[in-house]
């Protein structure tokens, strides 16, 4: 949480220049506290696994967060028990009149398809359009980042020669940007995808900023300047063994897939994978909840 000190105190400017978040008394006195309403549109096949991953990071904050899980009506998951979906998930029709502080749209294993050929594309575009007026800040992850950039800004995706698969080094382009504040000069994050967006296409959109990228993995975090839309091309939410599970799954299917880069010691799949992105995920999700949502979302969501 931010430290609250008077603006006139010399430390206010000193700490601000050091990229430490300071709240002055005037701002603090006008703040009301309530739970943040966060919706998750879960497009991943193993929904319970993804829930656990995301909720682990959303809960690692002093802020009180209220979660609404959403599933698509146009495509029903076959990898999650229907009892679980019936009990814990809502359809978009059931919540579309509500407003939310934040929305997370997960990745999905459909990236090699044309966007328009995805079964739930029409429903997804309806949700993304709805998010512009009913959500304060939306995070799009992996395939959803490509889908969101395509839908909102007509940024295309491109097929890769081979799967971007592993854990890669990244840097932040602006160390004072709210979303990447506190990250190391070099930090790590997993990627698992067959397609990419290109820097030159993103740079054509004046509303967008590239906040983080990687020499090997390319564009990583893109956001609108007001942080109302955020696009993350990798999978910071992944657990230690997620890439391992995906590698084994792909091998069992007979797919040609390389061992995930920078993941197993000596590329030995029998070794315990290195978990080198946990701090990165904690920082970025925490920054999103605090700086991009909590500090800016209206107390009365009906005023969105």
Automatic annotation (TrEMBL):
It catalyses: L-homoserine + acetyl-CoA = O-acetyl-L-homoserine + CoA. The keyword Translocase does not apply. One of its GO terms (cellular component) is cytoplasm. GO terms for biological process: L-methionine biosynthetic process from homoserine via O-succinyl-L-homoserine and cystathionine. Its EC number is 2.3.1.31. The active site is at 142 (acyl-thioester intermediate), 235 (proton acceptor), 237. It is found in: Cytoplasm. The record marks 192 as: Important for substrate specificity. Pathway: Amino-acid biosynthesis; L-methionine biosynthesis via de novo pathway; O-acetyl-L-homoserine from L-homoserine: step 1/1. One of its GO terms (molecular function) is homoserine O-acetyltransferase activity. Pfam families: HTS. Substrate binds at residues 163, 192, 249. The record marks 111 as: Important for acyl-CoA specificity. PANTHER family: HOMOSERINE O-SUCCINYLTRANSFERASE (PTHR20919). Transfers an acetyl group from acetyl-CoA to L-homoserine, forming acetyl-L-homoserine. Belongs to the MetA family. This is Homoserine O-acetyltransferase.
């Amino acid at each position: 949480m931010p430290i609250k000190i008077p603006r006139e105190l010399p430390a206010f400017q000193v700490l601000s220049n050091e990229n430490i978040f300071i709240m002055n008394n005037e701002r603090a006195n006008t703040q009301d506290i309530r739970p943040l309403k966060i919706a998750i549109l879960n497009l991943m096949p193993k929904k319970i696994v993804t829930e656990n991953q995301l909720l682990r990071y959303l809960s690692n904050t002093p802020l009180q967060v209220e979660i609404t899980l959403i599933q698509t009506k146009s495509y029903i998951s076959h990898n999650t028990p229907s009892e679980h979906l019936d009990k814990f998930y809502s359809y978009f029709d059931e919540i579309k009149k509500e407003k939310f502080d934040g929305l997370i749209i997960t990745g999905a294993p459909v990236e090699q398809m044309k966007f328009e050929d995805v079964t739930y594309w029409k429903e997804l575009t309806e949700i993304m359009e709805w998010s512009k007026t009913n959500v304060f800040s939306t995070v799009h992850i992996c395939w959803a980042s490509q889908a969101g950039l395509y839908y909102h800004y007509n940024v295309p995706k491109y097929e890769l020669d081979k799967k971007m698969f592993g854990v890669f080094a990244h840097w932040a382009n602006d160390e004072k940007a709210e979303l990447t504040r506190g990250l190391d000069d070099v930090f790590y994050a997993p990627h698992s995808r067959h397609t990419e967006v290109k820097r030159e296409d993103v740079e054509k959109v004046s509303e967008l900023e590239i906040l983080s990228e990687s020499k090997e993995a390319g564009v990583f975090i893109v956001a609108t300047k007001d942080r109302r839309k955020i696009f993350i091309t990798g999978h910071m939410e992944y657990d230690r063994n997620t890439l391992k599970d995906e590698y084994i799954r792909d091998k069992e299917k007979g797919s040609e897939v390389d061992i995930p880069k920078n993941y197993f010691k000596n590329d030995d799949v029998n070794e315990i994978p290195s978990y080198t992105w946990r701090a990165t995920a904690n920082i970025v999700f925490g920054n999103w909840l605090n700086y991009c949502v909590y500090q800016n979302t209206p107390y009365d969501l009906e005023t969105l």
